[in-house]
Amino acid sequence: MDIESVREYCLAKKGVTEELPFGPDTLVFKVMGKMFALVPLDETDLRVSLKNTPDKNLELRAEHPGIQGAFHMNKKHWSMFLMREGIPSSILRTSIDESYALVVQGFTKKLKAELEAL
Q: How is domain 3-117 classified at the CATH fold level?
């Protein structure tokens, strides 16, 4: 996957916006204002940071050397996918889906209803 594919995949999800809250070098994808994916724009190789459960993060890191604790994030809850390390696109897409779902799962009933209404 390239950065445009990641961008299109994330933006196709309900309630997702893209922002640059940390400056011009980090693209952040949010669902209803909550972060679920970050992509540094100042790197030549694609890197994507995603949220997941601590157990799932440990499992992913054990299976794929190109998945590690995310830079500048809580490494227990966030992993960084270094795509140059040969991580299959299917793993990245599944992990984006899981990150999005995990964030939505934590919403209040009101926020979930707002998302459903979109």
A: Aspartate Aminotransferase, domain 1 (3.90.1150)
For residue range 50-99, what is the model confidence (pLDDT) as tens digits?
999 999 999 999 999 999 999 889 999 999 999 999 999 999 999 999 99
- CA gap 95, 86 in Å, rounded: 15
> Rounded to the nearest 5 degrees, what angle is found at the Cα of 14, between the Cα atoms of 13 and 16?
75
**Angstrom distance (rounded) from CA 58 to CA 52:** 10
Q: What angle do CA 71, 96, 109 make, to 5 degrees?
A: 105
In tens, the pLDDT along 14-62 reads 999 999 999 999 999 999 999 999 999 998 899 999 999 999 999 999 9
